[in-house]
Amino acid sequence: MAHGHGDIAGRSIVDLGCGNGILAIGAKLLGASRAVGVDSDPEAIDVARRNATRAKVAVDLRPLDVNGFRESFETVVMNPPFGAQSRHADRPFLDAAMAISPVVYTFLNPKAEDFVRRRIVASGGRIVERLEYSFPIPHLFSFHREVARELDVILYRIEVAKG
User: Fold this and answer.
1) What is the tens place of the pLDDT at every residue in 11-70?
2) In a domain, 7, yes or no
3) Is the pTM of this model over 0.85?
4) How far is CA 50 from CA 2, 20, 24, 30, 160, in A?
5) Angstrom distance (rounded) from CA 119 to CA 124
6) Neighbours of 65 (CB within 10 A)
7) Phi and psi (nearest 5°) for 110?
């Protein structure tokens, strides 16, 4: 979706909560002029670095907490924590994204949609595109109970009024 809207090629991109780096790496492969991945977990950054090396792309990967991150980018792409394991874990990601970029792509848990919509509008954002689908999740974390699972998600494209 982001590539189709012209929000990747030739643009500066940041992936907040980058995990394994897939979104930042994908953005660079699709022609981003600059791709940065930020994650508070140093082990995740190490995995993302290995993945970027395998993909043969230059991605700036930073072991930083999203709180207080205020460098400006043209586009944010993110798959933040949904707040299911830690209540409101998605808030700092959404707040940071809307503070640093005029265009934000974010995945969210459908159960949190009303809250997320209100937070976006209160922060001066506007949801301009919405896509629902199922996202396959393999068993990756200790809290996962199944071998694999289809997780219903929503993808938003958000435009943020600056000024």
Assistant:
1) 999 999 999 999 999 999 999 999 999 999 999 999 999 999 999 999 999 999 999 889
2) no
3) yes
4) 24, 9, 13, 19, 33
5) 9
6) 13
7) -55, -30
DSSP-assigned beta bridge partners for residue 152: 134
In a domain, 2, yes or no: no
Angle at 83 between CA 7 and CA 107, to 5 degrees: 20
**Contacting residues for 153 by C-beta, under 8 A, at least 6 apart:** 107, 108, 109, 110, 132, 133, 134, 135
CA distance 100 to 102: 7
Classify residue 86: in a domain, yes or no: yes
In a domain, 114, yes or no: yes
Mean of per-residue pLDDT scores for the chain: 90
- List the domain range (segments joined by +) for residue 19: 12-160
Distances (CA, A) of 26 to 67, 84, 104: 24, 26, 16
pLDDT at position 87:
61
Whether 40 contacts 65, CB under 8 Å: yes
Whole-angstrom distance, CA of residue 77 vs CA of residue 61 = 14
H-only helix segments in the chain: 22-29, 42-55, 91-100, 113-122
- What total of structural domains would you count in the chain? 1
